[in-house]
Design a protein that fits this description.
Helix content is 54%, strand content 0%. By secondary structure, it is mainly α. The chain has one domain. About 6% of the residues have low confidence.
């Protein structure tokens, strides 16, 4: 059964970007952030560039199980989060080791893995906090070790309608996306402000390190 009671792809993408930016602020080796320190970098690069877009996509990815008629099962489990985290780290390590490919535009392997895993994990969190009126209720968080579905009951995120294409369904979806935007916009703005301040501070530190006083 295809659930209609789920958050929109827009809401999941918001959450993925928020998780990526938050994870990227976790303190780490100075060298792991060199790729983001250009003070005159474009908005796209300061936002994390392609990696941020990948994280937004990963946050939406679990809903591809709709095509398998097994929604909120394996792809909505902690095991799936671990797999995505490990694969992200492995792919990053492979890319950065290729001949002629430097680390420009990429951070440390651990940081990329954390960002991607966190972004994917937000999908589970959002669905756990969302409205679900179609049994089985919730997500199969501990698949394959437990068949139990979990749902918070908080109903923070309203439902969408994906089974019909009519004016009333469009209205429901627009209201849902507006609500998700209202929730995530302040979070994203705050994270952006912290990110800008952090990057500016790191850029100043790197500039001082590369240009020692005479």
């Amino acid at each position: 059964m295809v659930k209609q009671d789920m958050s929109s792809p827009l809401g999941h993408a918001y959450a993925g970007v928020a998780a990526a930016w938050a994870a990227d602020l976790v303190p780490g080796p100075q060298g792991s952030r060199d790729c983001r320190l250009a003070s005159a970098a474009s908005f796209f690069r300061r936002a994390g560039g392609t990696l941020t877009l990948i994280c937004a996509g990963l946050a939406v990815l679990p809903d591809l199980d709709l095509a398998l008629q097994a929604h909120r099962s394996a792809s909505h489990s902690i095991i799936a989060v671990l797999i995505i985290t490990i694969l992200s780290g492995a792919v990053t390590a492979w890319v950065t080791r290729r001949p002629g490919v430097g680390r420009t535009g990429l951070c440390s392997v651990a940081r990329v893995a954390l960002m991607c895993g966190a972004a994917y994990g937000t999908h589970l969190l959002v669905d756990w906090l969302a409205v679900d009126l179609t049994p089985p209720y919730g997500i199969q968080l501990f698949w394959p070790f437990s068949p139990t579905f979990y749902l918070s009951g908080v109903n923070l995120f309203p439902r969408t309608e994906r089974r019909e294409f009519a004016w009333w369904a469009i209205r429901i979806n627009l209201i849902t996306m507006a609500w998700e935007t209202a929730i995530f916009a302040p979070i994203l703005v705050l994270l952006w402000m912290v990110r800008e301040k952090t990057l500016s501070r790191l850029a100043a530190q790197m500039s001082g390190r590369h240009h020692p006083p005479q």
